[in-house]
Amino acid sequence: MVPTSYFLVLSAVLFGLGVIAFIFKRNIITIFMSIELMLNAVNLAFITFSRALGQLQGQVFVFFVIVVAAAEAAVGLAIIILIHRNRGTLNVERVDTLKD
Amino acid sequence: MPALTYLWIIPLLPLLGAAANGLFGTRWSKGAVTGVALTATTLSFLAALEVVREFVALPADQIPWIKTYFTWVSAGAFHADFALQVDQLTIIMLLVVTGVGWLIHIYSSGYMHDDPGYRRFFSYLNLFMFFMLLLVLAANYLLMFVGWEGVGLCSYLLIGFYYLKKSATDAGSKAFWVNRVGDFGFILGVLLILRTFGSLDFATVLPRAAAMPLEHIGQAGVLTVIALLLFVGATGKSAQLPLYVWLPDAMEGPTPVSALIHAATMVTAGVYMVVRSHAIFLNAPAAMEVVGIVGCVTAFFAATIGLVQTDIKKVLAYSTVSQLGYMFLALGVGAFSAGIFHLMTHAFFKGLLFLSAGSVIHAMGGEQDMRKMGGLRKKIPVTFWTMFMATLAIAGAPGFSGFFSKDEILLAAQRSSTPLWALGVLIAGLTSFYMFRLLFLTFFGAQQYDEHHVHVHESPKSMLVPLVVLAILSVCGGWMAAPALWGGVNHFEHFLAPVFATAVEPVAAAPESSRGVTEILQALLGAPVIAGLLGFLLAWWLYIRSPETPKKIAASLSAVYKLLLGKYFVDELYAAVIVRPLVWISDKVLWHLVDDGAIDGVVNGVASVSRESGDRLRYAESGNTRSYATWIVMGVVVFTSLLLWMVS
Lengths: 100, 648
Hints:
Chain A is an all-alpha fold. Chain A is built from 3 helices and no strands.
């Protein structure tokens, strides 16, 4: 059987990759995808603990996360489409009109 | 006992018919739609007959037969079941509703044959049957209320059946709103029953109400209040003063609807409800007094309006209001079984009158003004003869069904109060007059229509057969009570007696000695019969003998005539006192001031405040998304480290 720590390490690595992409990427869609990556890394951690502790709560929680992620994707993509339509760009550096 | 066990099948069948026609009927042929609707009602009628057969065999201690199917509402101490109940009263109502309803369904298949809304019509009609059967079978006030509201809904739908006609939709709305007023009283009464008795089951409430002490007049006890509130509901549904105004307008609906809903069944729901609650009413004499007086005054009021109407259906509508007044008069003087008896015979002859009127209208190609008919007797003989039978029945000609029921009511009124009796006799004369006026104007005299434009023709068989069946019932429907004439038992009253056994003192057994011929003659030629005869003679004299006289009378008594023709201007009064102020308040205050000013103002104000403040506050932010992201990540790192540090 694969030891629990392997899963946790994989989860941490995925999460770290998500965070790095979240900070350094300029394309909104990539940022968006990195958020999904972080969410799924967390899901993996939940599942791992659920299996290791023999409890169901972690798995139930994953369902909630999936639902929230789906809702967030729907709203987020709609926002992104609107930004692209109005600004003609997906570069976050160029979307900073709050000050003007 | 299959039918008594599966009582729910009786209301369910019409519901299935309504659902099938309403949901899938668009693609079906006319024959299939008719088949579904008629099968549903026929089976329902047969099931009702089976119930009667099994009910007769029931031992007395199992009556009322209550069948609880499932718990419907259970909240704290409150509990209501989906339970159906059968006792003698239910049996009568069940037979009237399914039987007359069935005949009218058959009639409608002929009458509505060329109507584009054929499917919709039968769907509504079946739905009405469902709710009406639920109303009469319910074993508690809550379930009864479902039926009560349901028949109101169907009535609304069917009055506004020709929805492209403004007057029809207006009449539908009017019926709906006026009934709301009554229903509000009814639901308040039901709530007060719940508060007082802690239950809504008839089997619990009524014995307890009967056991409560009699509340004397002037002593406004809880039973009096309950009874009056319930009666408010009854005035709405059964078209009594002051809420009768919707019924004459309801004639905008197709004629079979007027026959079924606005004459034979739904409008009697109020009478049925009061009789069902008899234990409450009997202990509240003040409320009984109100019921009797309102009924009597309504009967008189509507009968006088009926004297001058020219629309054939309007005459019948006011006649219905008047006859319902008779029923309430009976209830008010404590003659419950007489009231139900009149309800039954009225269902026969008034249903028949409306259906015959429909046949006349059919023959005249849609004309409803009696002044434009005349001389139809030879052209449509079957319709004439059936309508003649019904007219004799409603006028109370000795031997016909209306004679027995009306006589019994007036006899009970005589025992209780002379003024009510005198007014009742007068109304009997008025009834006879306006009915024979209708008959003479329509079928006798010179023809007033243009032969080239109107092709007068007798109606198809599907319409004539129900007419004949109802005519037979109108003639013989009262014979159950006939033995009372020569000192025997009134079978109808005897049959219903157990229902009232808990509340009423057992009726003194009828004197055994048979009466002499003179006494029978006296009963046959009592005051109501003489009044009816006078009404007939007057109508004959005015409309056959010298047809010019009515105009002269109208001219010489123009003030009275205008008052009657204007229906006492009650509609105008309501419009001025209630409708117009309400519209004004809704328009000027509620719409423009409250809705536009206050509510919209608050919403728009909140929006503009947040927009303004956002506009000012945005300068505090950099607007650079990536720096936000960095800050978030740093915050998470710091916070997590802090947590870990605190835990370890």
